[in-house]
């Protein structure tokens, strides 16, 4: 394998592993970086946008919509973004960019609301605040597993039921991502499961409504960004976007021409006929003339046989006459 072929193979493998950036994922990532920049520039108090019991005690309801974009440290920010990109891209490709952003806010606010209520029931000594993209990412994974037709999932060569996939990622994120609150992540998985069961059907956005919102200004700007895939809400348009039709250039694929069946039959019939009579198909076969109904051969062979027998008869007569006269 040459260096160029090795480079192309490596590039294909990297391209298959690295997910494609979509407009919804890009919007969430940009908002996360913007909130982190504002927090760093203005030196805001730590946990200013986290959710917990303070949401009800202090009336900070705006935190329910802000806590997914808030991160305390740079490692937490990068790890949360990586989890979102690798685990939530399939949901956006399945419902479209507009409905994905709506589901993002719905799942995150519902999870934050339930966790804040749970934290309010606990003692002050054990209460904890949470933030980041991990809870809503796990909720998206749980929602995706409720609508998939796959019964088995594979992770690092290990097979397990698809319904257990969110709980596997729950263990991984709890071990790797800092400031990850386990009760909030469990609540988020349960919220995604309930939404997949249809418990929030009254709050769901229809495909027609999402199609109308796509034509408005914020989403029209997202559609115009080059290098980023905007997933339409319509099922037919989504298929055309994610599964484009392949139009190969002329000459790029080998083409084998096939003769029509009628011409093949005609050629075989011609090869098998000799002067209107069926013959053998062998390459060295010679035509065998059929016998006449009166026991005579055909005219052509009769002429050849007559000449042959005439020559033999005349030769025999000459020899006989010559021998008789000599004697």
Shape: globular
Structural class: mainly alpha
Low-confidence stretches: 6-17, 290-327
As a whole number of angstroms, the C-alpha radius of gyration is: 42 Å
Structural commentary:
The chain has 327 residues and is mainly α. 59% of the residues lie in helices and 4% in strands. The protein has 14 helices and four strands. The strands form two sheets. It has a two-stranded antiparallel sheet with strand order 1-2. A two-stranded antiparallel ribbon has the order 3-4. Strand 1 and strand 2 (158-161) form a beta hairpin. Helix 6 packs across helix 9 (182-196). The radius of gyration is 42 Å and the shape is globular. Residues 6-17 and 290-327 have low confidence and may be disordered.
Give the helix/strand layout.
Blueprint: H1 3-17, H2 23-42, H3 54-57, H4 63-66, H5 74-95, H6 97-121, H7 134-147, E1 152-155, E2 158-161, H8 165-176, H9 182-196, H10 207-213, H11 217-223, H12 235-242, H13 261-271, E3 273-274, E4 277-278, H14 299-326
Summarize the model shown.
By secondary structure, the chain is mainly α. The chain has helices at residues 3-17, 23-42, 54-57, 63-66, 74-95, 97-121, 134-147, 165-176, 182-196, 207-213, 217-223, 235-242, 261-271, 299-326; strands at residues 152-155, 158-161, 273-274, 277-278.
């Amino acid at each position: 394998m040459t260096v160029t072929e090795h480079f192309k193979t490596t590039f294909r493998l990297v391209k298959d592993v690295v997910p494609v950036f979509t407009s919804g994922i890009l919007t969430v990532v940009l908002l996360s970086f913007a909130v982190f920049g504002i927090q760093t520039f203005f030196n805001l108090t730590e946990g200013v946008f986290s959710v917990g019991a303070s949401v009800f005690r202090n009336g900070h309801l705006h935190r329910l919509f802000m806590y997914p974009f808030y991160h305390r440290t740079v490692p937490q920010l990068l790890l949360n973004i990586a989890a979102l990109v690798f685990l939530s891209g399939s949901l956006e490709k399945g419902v479209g960019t507009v409905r994905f952003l709506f589901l993002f806010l719905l799942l995150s606010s519902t999870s934050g609301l339930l966790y804040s209520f749970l934290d309010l029931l606990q003692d002050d000594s054990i209460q904890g605040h949470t933030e980041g993209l991990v809870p809503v990412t796990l909720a998206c994974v749980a929602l995706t597993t409720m609508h998939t037709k796959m019964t088995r999932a594979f992770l690092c060569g290990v097979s397990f039921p698809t319904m257990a996939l969110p709980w596997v990622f729950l263990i991984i994120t709890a071990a790797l991502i800092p400031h990850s609150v386990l009760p909030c992540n469990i609540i988020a998985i349960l919220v995604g499961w309930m939404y997949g069961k249809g418990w929030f059907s009254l709050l769901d956005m229809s495909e027609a409504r999402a199609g109308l919102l796509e034509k408005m200004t914020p989403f029209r700007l997202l559609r115009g960004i080059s290098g980023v895939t905007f997933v339409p809400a319509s099922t037919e348009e989504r298929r055309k976007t994610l599964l484009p039709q392949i139009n190969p250039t002329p000459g790029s694929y080998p083409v084998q021409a096939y003769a029509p069946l009628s011409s093949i039959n005609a050629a075989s019939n011609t090869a098998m006929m000799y002067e209107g009579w069926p013959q053998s198909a062998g390459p060295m076969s010679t035509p065998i003339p059929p016998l006449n109904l009166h026991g005579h051969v055909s005219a052509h062979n009769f002429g050849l046989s007559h000449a042959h027998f005439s020559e033999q008869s005349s030769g025999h007569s000459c020899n006989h006459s010559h021998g008789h006269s000599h004697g």
